[in-house]
Amino acid sequence: MLNSITPDLFINDPYSIFNTARENNPVLFGNFLNSTGWLITGYKEAEFVLKDPRFIKEGRKLFPPEALATFSERVMPAIALTRNMMLFRDAPDHTRLRNLVNKAFTPKMVERLRPAIEDISSYLLTARKGQSQHELIRDFSYLLPVFVITELLGVPKEDRELFRKWSDAFIKFIDFNTTMDDLESVSDDLKEASNYFRELISKKRITPQEDLLSGLIQAEANGDNLNEDEMIATCLLLLVAGHETTVNLITNAYYLLLTHPEQLKLVQEDRSLISNVVEETLRFEPPVLMTSRWVAEDMELAGQQLKKGQIAFISLAGANRDPLVNADPNSFNILRESIKHLSFASGPHFCLGAPLARLEGIIALEKLVECFANPRLLEKPVWRKNFAFRGFEALHFEAETR
Ligand code: HEM
C-alpha cells in the first residue's frame, strides 16, 4: 500500500495513510515517498524505536565511504553545519551537546520569558484592534516564536527579519522529500546564517549578557567541551526547532477551535481548558509529523525482521492516533480524560524546548481567545508542502476585536 502514496495524498490527509498502514502492520516495509524503509505507526512501536539505542541518527556510520551520497562543494558547508547539531548526533556527542544546552536552558530561564511572551502577544494583537479580517500566521503566530527565540538566544531585535529566510532554508534542507537541487538552492542561506552567528558570538565574547548564547560561551570558557562550530550549529538548531514548530502549534490549535465551535465556546467559558487545547492539538495535528532513525543492528520488531542499514520513518502523528492508547483517536476532543502523544518524541532526543513550546502555546491561545469575538474562517486553508512539518500556508479569518 505504501507504494501508491502520492505527495498530494500525503499532504492532504496523512492520517488516512498512517491509519491504513497501522491496520496492516504498525511496522510496515515499503517504498514510501521516494525512500525505501520502515514506516512505524503504532504508539508502542514508535516509542520503542525512539528510546532504543539500536536506532541511531548517524546513519553514515553504518556504510562504507563509497556507499554514501556525495554532495557538491556548495552544499558541503551546510551538511557540516547540520552534522554539528545534537539532533543529528548519537551518544556520546549527543549527550555532551545536549547537557551543555540543558545547563543554559533551565526551567528558570523559560519561566523568565513568561512576561516577555505575554507582552509580545498583547503587542501583536493590539495592532489588530479595529480590523475585521486577519491572517493568523502573518499577523501573530509567525512573529511570536521569532521574538521569543531571538530574546532567548540574545539576538538583537533589528536582526529578527533575517531569520525567516534562514528558518525556511533549514526546513527545506531537512524535509524527507529534499532533492539535490533543493539542497543547492538553500545552502547559501545556511552559510549566511552560520556567518551571522559567528560574528554575534565574537561580539558576545567581549560583552556577554543574560542570554543563552552568552551561557554557551561561558560553558566553553569553563573548559566544557564545545567548539565554535558546534555553538553556531546549536544556535541555528534552536532557532529552527523552536520556530516553525511553534508557529504550527499556535496556528493548528486556533484552526481546530475555529472548526469546532462548540469546543471554542467551552474554552471561552472556562480558560483553564486551554492547556488541554494545546495537548490535544499536539496529539491531533502535530507540528512534526515524522522523524527518522537508522537501524544499527538486525532485530525483530512487531514480527518484522529489520536489517542493519535500513531506515525507519517514525510517524509521530500515526502513533498519536493509535486506538490502543487513545480512544476514538480520529476526533478532536479537548475534554479527553488522558491525552497521550509522542509529538515531542521520546528517549534521548525528547524535545528540549517542550516546556517553552507549551508556555508559548498556552499564552498565545489565551490572548487569541480574549482578543477575538465571533471568529469565522474565511477560506479553507492550504497545507504547506512538507512531509516532516504540518502547518498551513496561511489562515484567513474574520472576527471582531475586543
Ligand atoms: C510545538 C512545538 C515543538 C514541537 C512539536 C517540537 C518537536 C520536537 C521533536 C519531535 C523533536 C525530536 C526529533 C527527533 O527525535 O528526531 C524535537 C527535538 C528538539 N527540539 Fe523541539 N519541538 C517544539 C518546540 C521547540 C522549541 C520551542 C525549542 C527550543 C527553543 C525546541 C528545541 C528542540 C531541540 C534543541 C531538539 C533536539 C533535541 C535532541 O536532539 O536531543 N523545540 N522537537
UniProtKB/TrEMBL annotation:
Keyword terms, alphabetized: Heme, Iron, Metal-binding, Monooxygenase, Oxidoreductase
Family to which this protein belongs: Belongs to the cytochrome P450 family.
Domain of life: Bacteria
Protein name: Cytochrome P450
A Pfam family it matches: p450
Coiled-coil residues: none
